[in-house]
C-alpha cells in the first residue's frame, strides 16, 4: 500500500458522535438521533449491514442534512471494495453515496469551522474517493479529492485537541511522514512537515486505550499498520481486541486468518477462516466464498504434510 492509502485509512474511520443537541431520551421511549446512530454504527461494525442500512435510511429521513448516516452508508461499499474485491459497481455506489456525505459535511463545517469531527470526516471522504477513483482510472476525481483531503488533514493538525479522534488523525499523519523513504524525505522537510513512525504509534495507542467509541477505529488502524510493518504479533493483539468487541464482524476474523497464515500458523488461520464460513454473513457472500476456499487450501496443505 502507498502512503496516501495509509493516510486514508485513518480519517474515515475516526468519526466520534458528538453530544446530542436534540431529543432527551429520558423523556421519551423513542430513541434520540444519537442513540439510533449508535445502534446503526454498532450494526455496521458487526457487519450486520442489512440492519445498518435500515437504520441509516431512517436517520436520513429523520435528519436529512446530518452527514453521518450518509458517511457510514457509503463505507459499506468502500469496505467491500477495499478489503474484499474491486468491482466497478461497488466503486460507482461508493462515489455516489459519498458525494452526498461530502456535501452535507461541508455545510456543517461552514457553520462550525473548528468542528474536529467534520474535519476528520471530510479528510476521510475525500481520501477514500481519491483511492477508489484512482483504482477505476477516474484520475480527475482522484486528483481533486486527494488534494482536498490533504487540505483538511493540515487543518486537523492546526487544531489543538486531545480528543481521541484528533489523536488518530495526528498519529496517522506522523506515521505517514515517518514512512517516507529517506531519499525523498527532503520533500517533507522542505514543506516543514515532521513526524516519525513510533510517534504515530504512540498517538494511536492513546486513542485505542481511551473510553471513546473511536478506540475501536484506532485498534483497527493499529492492526493494519503493524501488519504493514511486518510486526505480526502486535497486529494479532489488536485483531483479537476487535474480535472480542465485535465477534460477528467477519472482516476482522478474515484479517486475523490472513495474519496467522502469513505467520505460518496454519491450524489457527484455518480456525479464523472457518469462523467466517460458519457466521455465513448474508451481507458479504463473496467473503464467505473466499474463506471457504482458504479452508480447503489449508486442509489440502495439511494432508500433504501428513
CATH architecture of the largest domain: Alpha Horseshoe
Count of alpha/pi helices? 15
| Straight-line distance between termini | 36 Å
What is the highest CATH level, the class of the largest domain? Mainly Alpha
How many β-strand runs?
0
Helix content: over 70%
Question: Any overview of this molecule?
Answer:
With 306 residues, the protein is mainly alpha-helical. It has two domains: 3-16 and 31-234, Serine Threonine Protein Phosphatase 5, Tetratricopeptide repeat (Alpha Horseshoe); 249-306, no CATH class. The longest helix is centred in the first third of the chain and has 24 residues, at 88-111. It is globular and about 65 Å long. Residues 1-26 have low confidence and may be disordered. The protein is 75% helix and 0% strand. The chain has helices at residues 3-13, 33-45, 49-62, 67-84, 88-111, 116-135, 139-158, 164-178, 185-190, 197-208, 215-228, 232-245, 250-262, 266-279, 285-305.
Which properties best describe this structure?
single chain; 306 residues; mainly alpha; Serine Threonine Protein Phosphatase 5, Tetratricopeptide repeat; 2 domains; 15 helices; 75% helix; disordered N terminus
Spell out the blueprint of helices and strands.
Blueprint: H1 3-13, H2 33-45, H3 49-62, H4 67-84, H5 88-111, H6 116-135, H7 139-158, H8 164-178, H9 185-190, H10 197-208, H11 215-228, H12 232-245, H13 250-262, H14 266-279, H15 285-305
Compact summary:
With 306 residues, the chain is mainly alpha-helical. It has helices at residues 3-13, 33-45, 49-62, 67-84, 88-111, 116-135, 139-158, 164-178, 185-190, 197-208, 215-228, 232-245, 250-262, 266-279, 285-305. The chain is 75% helix and 0% strand.
